Amino acid sequence: MAAPLSPRAAATRQRILDAALTEFAANGLAGARVDEIATRADANKRMIYAHFGSKEELWLAVLETAYAAKRAEEHALETADLPPVEAMRALVRFNLRYTAAHPEFVALLNQENIHRAAYLKRSGAVPALYSPLLAALGAVLARGQREGVFRDGVDAMQLYVSILGLGHFYIANRHTLSTIFGAELHTEASLAAREAHIEEVVLGYLRP
What we know:
mainly alpha
């Protein structure tokens, strides 16, 4: 096990991660420059390589950090304490609003998909984050079934992917969709309308 970092080293590492997130989100892995990351982090290239080894390892660390941050907030919803319908509404709202508030997360995911998840496949940390999520969602579905508000036979993973897709596609494509439909999809009113629509779609699917 690696020795814990000193407070100063930990602060430097965090500055590098924050700077890299900004640079990678703007330019992707291929276009990002280590020199720019170093400047943003008020560090030097030697520190980056000392902490992360390479630009590719830094990219993976940024991905893992971004996924962990989202899951930490999602976990804080405490869906086990909510009635099943309210738990599902909370999950829908969270995922749409988080995606809207974190365009850098959307950019990272889009870039990693261009790489066919080549770097994410090396991560043991990210898949481990989602097993508890699916278990918690499965528990909500089971409670809803017992209470007669959700139908039987719902696959937790498929449902979660659908919730993500209904929100992520809207956020990731707001600029093109706004242009195509001549609508202002960037406004709070538009986001609230989308949120209500996704809730209705998901709960309609779950209705017995």
